[in-house]
Amino acid sequence: MFLFLIAILVPCLVLVVLGLRLMGQERQLEDKRRTDERQLLVVRVRQELLSLLEKLRLQEVTRAVAPVGREELGREPQVTVAFVGALIDGWLRLPWEDDPRAQMFMASLNESSFGERIRQAEADELVAHKYARAVRLYQAAITAAAHPAQQTYARLLRARALGKLGRRSESRDEYGAVLASPTDLVDEHGVPLALYAAPPMLEAGLHHQGILAQVRRTMNGKRWLSPTALYLARELVRTLDAPDVEARLAVLLHESEQAEALQRDSARLLTGANRREPGWVTHGDPAWLVSVTPSPRRLEDLVVVVRAREALASLSTAQQPLRLASATEAAGEALGESFPGLRLVLPGQKAPRVGSRQTFFALGLILALTFTLLAGYLLWRDVQRDLRLAEMRSQFVSSVTHELKTPLAAIRMFIETLQLDEEVDQRIRSEYLDTILHESERLSRLVDNVLDFGNIERGKKTYRFETVWLDEVVAGAARAIQYPLEQAGFSLEVAVERGLPPVPADSDALQQAILNLLTNAMKYSGDSRRIRLGLDRQNGDARIQVVDEGVGISPADQGRVLERFYRAPTSENEHIPGAGLGLTLVAHIVSAHGGAVEIDSHIGAGSTFAIRLPLPDSDAATHARSNQ
User: Fold this and answer.
1) Quick one: which of 539, 534, 507 has its CA closest to 609?
2) Half-sphere exposure (CA, 13 Å, Cβ side) for 306?
3) Helix (H), strand (E), coil (C) string for 158-193
């Protein structure tokens, strides 16, 4: 171990330390380079974004002062301006609050001929409940209308009066005409008049697709919709079950609410010390970029509001995608004082280039560590194997010594008894001689097991195959074990199925395997004194079973009891003699005969060991038995 540490581990550790230090320095340089690249990218994006926003602001101011065609302003950037509003006395005017269409509608209601007819008709309908007269007055207002908004509004009121009068068909026709009207015809609240016709049509179960189409046209208009119009459209869409349209309306409603929040904050953000000229301030989520610009020909200032995400998206490319961090996202690089609160999420960095020297050191470290770990593992494995073999040999020698001493002590005791007392009764003498004989046979079986195991280890174990009858082999094993069983108080039950054909086998080896199983059953029977030995046919095989009712074997140990020297590590086994060779010999003998050993055992319920041997053709076997 000392030489191993000096020759391998110490140089490897020195190489690892030096390599890791060098790789750490190169990693630091690479991190610094990537940080510098990120900072340069942030500066470039900030400059490009400022340039784009200034171009947008100049464009919107030019339009507000002297509206001209877009072609005269040059190419328009691919960015959506949320809106442009007037800042009057620190209060931001929102787009729908200065809608000229709503102002035109209010002016049309005040026209003398049209307005008088509408007011008189509403009095007859809503106060006097004279619906027929109201219908005629509404019709007269339609005839006198000088503007499409007047005509559509009068039709809407006439449809309502017709419904109250009970003329449903005419009412639906009028509602249908209103529903098909253009979306730019709005009332004083900025709500398209066509949307007011939708609820009565839905109640009648008509024009679902027409209503949905009208809502789509309303959303796709170029002007901002008032919150009132958006809420009405949302209620209609929920009835029509159109998730895509409802999702789009949710976005529009969020923007209108965000615009109202900006209006409430306008005095704080856009006036006094907080006013940033010509800078931009951020507001809301998703972020808006807001700037205040003095108008050269107007009394009020102009407020330009740009959607930050779309502005940044116009600067992105397929090779360099850019996006803003959300309000809940901690990642990103700050865009600086020009855009307070905005963070830029940069594209994923490319994997750093690995230099040849770094590659060489990395490969050297991997090889050194691999060699060191492999050498250590091989050394540890060899040491563990030697320790296990030494322990097994020690246990084997101890067990064999104990196994040899027991029959030798019995033989010596009975021989000395016979020598000392020549007048021993003939019956007792015969019993002593029988005991000496059986202990000698037990000693011979133990020696044979050890010799057979040695031959198996050297690959020199041979078997003499001849035609044998299994019932005779089983009977011979039962006779050989009978005396030790009786001496230990065991009863052996033998059940043999007649008519089994002969098999090519080594009779002595098979009998030795059965005796090993019976001896094993005697050792591990515990308090039970009952053993069963059986021979039968199952699934085309001959099956020799030895069944005990002893301590049993755990499932974890059942797969290892056939290994050499292996004994289940239980407290009961420490007091049971054995060398751990009997079952190993059984497995080898059965395998040499083309069979298999099966184990079925449960803790506390005993064990069943079965030897399965293939049987030849039954007809030929029967013929051989009759000739014999």
Assistant:
1) 534
2) 29
3) HHHHHHHHCCHHHHHHHHHHHHCCCCCCECCCCCEH
